[in-house]
Design brief:
This protein has about 375 residues and is of the alpha/beta class. It has 15 helices and 13 strands. The chain has two domains: about 200 residues, 3-Layer(aba) Sandwich (Rossmann fold); about 150 residues, Glycogen Phosphorylase B (Rossmann fold). It starts with a strand and ends with a helix.
Length: about 375
């Protein structure tokens, strides 16, 4: 079975790129087709992969301003010739599933979410802090891409969604059903500790939509110690809001992240995410999660078992959850056991079985 992996772009490392890395572990001989690739922004293991880029790789300043070229991505993926492969496995939250396939090929799309800028426009512009002047123009520019996206969804033979949350979006957007396979968690990298220090922890990109503002306000009011791991454009603004008990650590190594997760009292997870891997990393470390009751957290955090949920994205609602937390106890072994159910090896087994079963059905 000849298989090709296709991904939107490889110029930043996050949950979607962890999926690509894990897919490559399953099929190490498979080439990876993508629009652009920035080796400096990716972990070292990507340098050993067979990565094949589109014509967009040579566009001026594309690595920095890759979103400005949004109108070219459909063409970039349509121009890939994947006719020599039996199976196309796309990892997509935007464009990769738009590759062309020949008759008889199998196309499985692991969908992180239908493209936010196309199908959840108001949510997207709020997340990206797009100036008001462009908000009125962009809908007209992206309408052709919306039509392209909906049309090419019909070329996908099978969708795999990373969560129930995303499966419902795929159903609403494309009218398609999905197999749910949760993304891989590197639970072996995170271990419980016998040490518990007196601080709570946030691990997040520092962006306005992540709602770290409500966390800071709640912790300022309660005078509780908080450490924040992550970087982003909102850091300066958030630092202005923070009181003396709040510490910004910026980017940290994986070893430092594991140590902080294992020694904190709990992880604070205030945003609405498609799935959210960090809560499971905290649980693998034996620590509970205080999470906003929405999105992927509904599928990973069990109230009063693996954490505490709060119902509104407000400082007051989070304060009530923190006060509830003071009277709860959590079993480290149970927390870790729950997280291991989402381990990378579970993901690998499920996605391999899905692809190979569908390929056998077609005699590929």
């Amino acid at each position: 079975m000849r298989l090709a992996i296709v991904h939107d772009y490889l110029n930043q490392f996050g949950g979607a790129e962890r999926v690509v890395s894990t897919l490559h572990e399953i099929w190490p001989e498979a080439p990876i087709y993508t629009s652009i690739y920035d080796p400096a922004a990716m972990p070292e293991q990507f340098s050993r992969m067979d990565i094949r880029v589109s014509f967009m790789q040579n566009l001026p300043l594309v690595r920095r301003f890759f979103k400005v070229y949004f109108f070219l991505y459909p063409l970039a993926f349509e121009r890939f010739d994947l006719s020599e492969y039996d199976v196309i496995l796309s990892s997509s939250s935007a464009y990769a599933k738009g590759v062309r396939k020949r008759p008889g090929q199998l196309h499985v799309c692991y969908c992180h979410t239908p493209a936010r800028f196309l199908w959840r426009y108001d949510d997207y512009v709020a997340r990206e802090n797009i100036p008001a002047v462009f908000r009125h123009v962009l809908p007209f520019l992206i309408e052709p891409i919306r039509q392209w996206d909906r049309s090419n969804s019909g070329q996908v033979d099978l969708f795999a969604a990373n969560s129930q949350n995303v499966a419902e979006r795929i159903r609403q957007t494309y009218g398609r059903e999905s197999v749910i396979i949760n993304p891989p968690v590197e639970s072996a990298l995170f271990q419980p500790s016998s040490v518990t220090l007196d601080y709570f922890l946030v691990v997040s990109r520092l962006a306005a939509y992540k709602r770290l503002d409500i966390v800071i306000e709640a912790f300022n009011r309660l005078g509780l110690p908080l450490k924040i791991i992550g970087s982003g454009l909102a850091r300066r603004q958030l630092e202005k809001l923070a009181g003396p008990e709040i510490e910004f650590l910026g980017r940290v190594s994986e070893a430092q992240l594991a140590k902080h997760l294992a020694e904190c009292r709990a992880l604070i997870f205030p945003g609405e995410e498609d799935f959210g891997i960090v809560p499971l990393e905290a649980m693998a470390s034996g620590r509970p999660v205080i999470a906003y009751r929405a999105g992927g957290a509904l599928e990973t955090v069990i109230d009063e078992v693996t954490g505490i949920m709060f119902d509104e994205q407000t400082p007051h609602s989070l304060e009530l959850a923190l006060k509830r937390f003071q009277f709860e106890s959590f079993d480290k072994a149970a927390l870790r056991s729950h997280a291991v159910g989402f381990d990378k090896e579970v993901f690998k087994s499920k996605i391999r079985e899905l692809v190979e079963t569908k390929a056998r059905e077609r005699d590929l």
